[in-house]
Amino acid sequence: MGKHKLTPELMDIIAERFKALGEPARLQILDAMRDGEATVTELVDATGLGQANVSKHLGLLHGLGFVTRRKEGLYVYYSLADRNVFRLCDLMCTRVETETTARKRVLAAR
Amino acid sequence: MGKHKLTPELMDIIAERFKALGEPARLQILDAMRDGEATVTELVDATGLGQANVSKHLGLLHGLGFVTRRKEGLYVYYSLADRNVFRLCDLMCTRVETETTARKRVLAAR
DNA sequence: CTACTATATTACCATACAGTATTTAATGAG
DNA sequence: CTCATTAAATACTGTATGGTAATATAGTAG
Asked: Residue B15 — pLDDT band, cuts 50, 70, 90?
């Protein structure tokens, strides 16, 4: 299972990525790009967040390699660099499910 | 791939979990429990973090269902509730790898 | 050139939170 | 009982960061 050994440096790197996903606004933005590339304005509309806010989040996501950018005229098109992000979300969902079922089991047992 | 649809509420929950993993100290703690349950003192020794700090992180991890606790006399034994955590880390490592190789490719191309 | 649009950046504020020192609670030893 | 040990809780501080307003930058159109 653990084909990557977690050195302290690697843990810092991993933690930085997890932290990037640990923000609902950024998950929203990534989710809004699920169906393909999107401009900043489109992402602003899709998420309801402010323009500066979206731009800042996109800068961070781009800096960490989660998204790629492509400039065309006035617009900047962002797209997912790696759809594994959704695999991560899916795995985390499974985590939450087992957690809640475990809680239910505990509640039922008393 | 996405068998879970990411509703806003679910995204909040997922983000909360990711944020929990987005902290090197907590990854260290989880990693220290890889080989089995451990007391707080053992985790303090293994990580080099302060006792109060470890205790607080453990409280958070326990609250989110990442770890279970078992009290025995003076000691409290913590253990992983779900080894999927390491799968998440592994997946994230793959993320980082593709990211760095992509960066290398860009650098080599110019 | 000016005017307009899209995006990025800067500055600022408020909140969240990691870390630590200290205290409290619980258990066990003598 | 007292004293020591373990862990959790509390209080506090400093820092990081999300959100937003204002500004800057870049591209386009006229």
From this structure: very high
| Interchain proximity A14–B96, CB inside 8 Å | yes
Residue carrying structure tokens 């791939």: B1
Task: Measure Cα distances from B17 to A6, B55, B85 in Å.
Answer: 19, 18, 10
Sign of the alpha-carbon dihedral angle for B69, B72, B75, B77: negative
Rounded to an integer, what distance in angstroms lies between the CA atom of residue A97 and that of residue A103?
10
- Hey, what's the torsion of the CAs at A25, A26, A30, A32, to 10 degrees? 20
A-chain residues near B13 (CB < 8 A): 96
Per the model's pLDDT, the better-predicted residue between A96 and B30 turns out to be: B30
Tell me the CA–C1' distance in angstroms for B6 and C17.
26
The string of pLDDT tens digits covering residues A69-87 is 999 999 999 999 989 999 9
